[in-house]
Design brief:
Layout lengths: L1 H27 L22 H9 L2 H10 L2 E7 L2 E3 L2 E4 L3 E7 L8 E2 L14 E6 L3 E6 L7 E6 L1
Parallel strand pairs: 1-4, 3-8
Antiparallel strand pairs: 1-2, 4-6, 5-7, 7-8
Length: 154
């Protein structure tokens, strides 16, 4: 009898701690912020432009500027069932990829050799990163390292 009461109390304590931890991450986690890294990152807001982007637009003709903007894409990768989907995407340089966490648990997006680096994303949160330089970018979840993905930038 005493063992079953003790087990019941332990289960209740674990549920309370798990609920507190989940709620703490939802309320205390700030929106993902991208920090500039050399010339490869840009703000996540499409309204804002980096000084590099403004210089490109000032030095190119309107036709060239339109071609640069037309090549850029918006792609979405969902995080669900402990996996990135799609696992591999191919985009044009200047395109923005947005990762959205649809899992009940927290995840993050961390580039293996530079590139994206998100904060912890709770359920429903998103993180965006603009890829300006062609190449292959591999990334993983910082919380669940077995979760991996690839972005190919052409």
């Amino acid at each position: 009898m005493k063992k079953s009461i003790l087990i019941g109390v332990i289960v209740i304590v674990l549920i309370i701690i798990g609920t507190w931890y989940t709620n703490k991450n939802k309320t205390a986690s700030p929106a993902p912020v991208q920090t500039p890294q050399e010339s490869t990152t840009q703000p996540t807001s499409p309204v804002l432009a980096s000084s590099t982007e403004r210089k490109i637009e000032q030095k190119t003709s309107p036709a060239t500027t339109n071609n640069i903007k037309n090549q850029a894409e918006q792609k979405t990768i969902t995080i669900n069932n402990l996996a990135f989907s799609p696992n591999t995407i191919t985009i044009s340089a200047g395109s923005t990829v947005t990762w959205t966490n649809n899992d009940p648990m927290a995840h993050s997006v961390i580039g293996d050799n530079g590139g994206p680096k998100s904060t912890t994303l709770s359920n429903g949160q998103s993180y965006s990163y603009t890829f300006n330089t062609p190449g292959t970018y591999t990334y993983h979840c910082g919380i669940h390292p077995s979760m991996k993905g690839t972005v190919v930038v052409q």
